[in-house]
Amino acid sequence: MTATLRDLGEFELIRAITARFALGQDVLVGPGDDAAVLSAPDARVVVTTDLLLEGRHFRRDWSSGVDVGHKAAAQNLADVAAMGARPTGLFVGFAAPGDLTVDWALALADGLAAECARAGATVAGGDISSADSIMLGVTALGDLEGRAPVLRSGARPGDVVVLAGSLGRAEAGLALLTAGLGHDADADADADADAGWTGLVTAHRRPRPPYPLGPALAAAGAHAMCDVSDGLVQDLGHIATASGVRIDLDLGGLTALAAAEPLPSAAAELGADPLDWVLTGGEDHALVACLPPAAAIPGGCERIGLVLPGTGVTLAGRPTAGRGGWNHFR
Ligand SMILES: Nc1ncnc2c1ncn2[C@@H]1O[C@H](COP(=O)(O)OP(=O)(O)OP(=O)(O)O)[C@@H](O)[C@H]1O
Ligand SMILES: Cc1ncc(C[n+]2csc(CCOP(=O)(O)O)c2C)c(N)n1
Ligand SMILES: [Mg+2]
Ligand SMILES: [Mg+2]
Ligand SMILES: [Mg+2]
Q: Which residues bind substrate (predicted)?
């Protein structure tokens, strides 16, 4: 019989989970005391928090515990990188039903640890409770290393909009799973197994934000930056509003992204528009930044648009109305 959380009990579970987390270079006191202690030589610490709920952000029949751990960490670590900071520590609030297997909970811890390792961070603490379905509340910290934080409000007309990371792939993977396709893709698929439709499903299960490019874009002089959690048009809309500018997207560049296999073949199978996935798909956690025109674009980033006077987000000068993104209450 497989042991459940009820069998193990809260404190043995905490012991088993925290044994999976190494003490990171920035963590002076990790899990085990009333609070953690992190070093912050720069004294400017970035802090962000996000929820991840079963049924809303993931399904247990579509994602393994390791997958959910990767996703919960990535969702928060990308926000740290989007401020131009280097991720340091993660705090994980975890609630689950008592009949969840211990194996699932420890797989979650392994996924969290592995994604933290991708970003150079570690899990420094958390909390555990019981609940009717799985709920994760993750908080991430990062070090600005002496740089100024890159806000949503700093874009200026003339800036070039650049993209680091992928767009539309997680949304395509979700669409495949929803249609009952890709469900057979191995639930423990390695994040590097990114060929074909399996790679799209993997992108939904384990987003791979380009963490080092957050600090790199900040160092290159980015005026504004955010990660794409809800969809490119919607998230750039936040930059446009906060900065009081218009952002015009290049049709050619985005069409090329939508034309890159396997997006078009998956879209054809589902009767979907791959450009819609690229423009409105969330959860790839790419980084988008507005760079001054003279700045060198860091390797791994590509130009996708231009900042202009005005308001809103346009595509080759045309309104993007009707192309929105994820909204929890609509
Ligand atoms: N319940 C809340 N209380 C206080 N501040 C909040 C709350 N929810 C969101 N915010 C703040 O609003 C801002 C925007 O939050 P939002 O969650 O939209 O951004 P995000 O985390 O980058 O995106 P996403 O949640 O889609 O990944 C952030 O500064 C966040 O701290
Ligand atoms: C089972 C299941 N159904 C739907 C979705 C799609 N989805 C959920 S939340 C979100 C935006 C980002 O979340 P947040 O804004 O909370 O960070 C998206 C695109 C999913 N991932 N899993
Ligand atoms: Mg949020
Ligand atoms: Mg964000
Ligand atoms: Mg959101």
A: 57, 283, 326
